[in-house]
Design a protein that fits this description.
This protein has 14 helices and nine strands. With 291 residues, the chain is of the alpha/beta class. It has a seven-stranded mixed β-sheet with strand order 4-3-2-5-6-9-7, sandwiched between helices. A two-stranded antiparallel ribbon has the order 1-8. Helix 7 runs parallel beside helix 9 and helix 9 runs antiparallel to helix 10.
């Protein structure tokens, strides 16, 4: 069994080896699992959150983050898709004496109504070691649809972290950068070495922090946000082309007039735009729609 010192420190390689021996625990390639075995990284992430907050953890796995989160927060709701990990996870929570502070929910987070869950459970913090294949759209979904989550801390692929935190108007951005930064301030907190995981991923990881803005970055009515984001998607569908070309099918008629009213240079490419540039174009287009 796990010794006293290890119980204090957190989930380590030896804890994982015990789980592998007892439960034949393996990381699922299909689910993009990589088990975090460095308790120093886990504690560093837990140190970001406010003591006593209510946490939603996405993909707890073997509980590497769940344990320190439960010690700092008032309660952790943990969503886990892999049914094969549920019993080992329960064992870890018991070993580290945090069972009464954690509720494990067997579900796919992509199918969960995050707005309802966060609102009903008064969750203000979302944390996760996110699978690389869903991290960007999932974070955009949280930013858009979970307004009670004022803080999001996510371990993601370095490339994803750099894209989401990139200054707007630079080559590193994509449409999802604008969608997330519309609601959140995004920064990279620190890098995580590959050696911190079993199995080691083939890509580098970073921890990013998303803090919800007091109000959206630009003046777009909440009921118009989806249409606003759709316009940005259209622009980035041809990101190497000038806006007058990439948005021509979206704006259809009166294209030149829209750019003139918005006072936006039609020769800009999407990646050169600010959120205010896009918002000005959106408002100008809205004004021209039939009443």
């Amino acid at each position: 069994m796990t010794d006293v010192n290890e119980t204090h420190s957190g989930v380590t390689l030896s804890v994982l080896k015990e789980l592998q021996q007892q439960y034949r625990v393996t990381a699922s390639k299909a689910l993009g699992q990589n088990f975090l075995i460095d308790p120093n990284i886990s504690r560093k992430i837990a140190d970001v959150i406010e003591p006593g907050c209510k946490v939603l953890e996405i993909g707890p796995g073997i509980g590497s983050l769940t344990v320190p989160l439960a010690r700092v927060s008032s309660f952790v709701h943990a969503i886990e898709l892999d049914e094969h990990i549920l019993v080992p996870l329960a064992d870890v929570l018991s070993q580290f004496d945090v069972t009464n502070k954690v509720a494990v929910i067997h579900n796919d987070v992509m199918n969960v109504d995050l707005e309802k869950m966060c609102s009903e459970s008064q969750i203000d913090t979302v944390i996760g070691n996110l699978p690389y294949n869903i991290s960007a759209p999932l974070l955009a979904n949280i930013a858009r649809n979970a307004p009670s989550a004022s803080l999001v801390v996510a371990m993601v692929q370095k490339e994803v972290g750099e894209r989401l935190s990139a200054p707007l108007g630079t080559r590193e951005v994509s449409s999802i950068t604008y969608k997330v930064q519309f609601f959140m301030d995004v920064s990279i907190a620190f890098s995580v070495p590959r050696q911190s995981f079993i199995p080691q991923p083939r890509v580098d990881s970073v921890v990013i922090i998303l803090k919800r803005r007091d109000s959206p970055a630009v003046d777009v009515a909440f009921e118009d946000v989806d249409n606003f984001f759709a316009m940005i998607d259209v622009a980035f569908g041809q990101r190497r082309k000038m806006l007058r070309k990439s948005l021509s099918t979206h704006f259809r008629e009166r294209l030149s007039e829209i750019f003139l009213i918005a006072q936006v240079d039609p020769t800009l490419r999407p990646e050169q735009c600010t959120l205010e540039n896009f918002a000005a174009l959106f408002r100008a287009h809205q004004e021209m729609l039939p009443a």
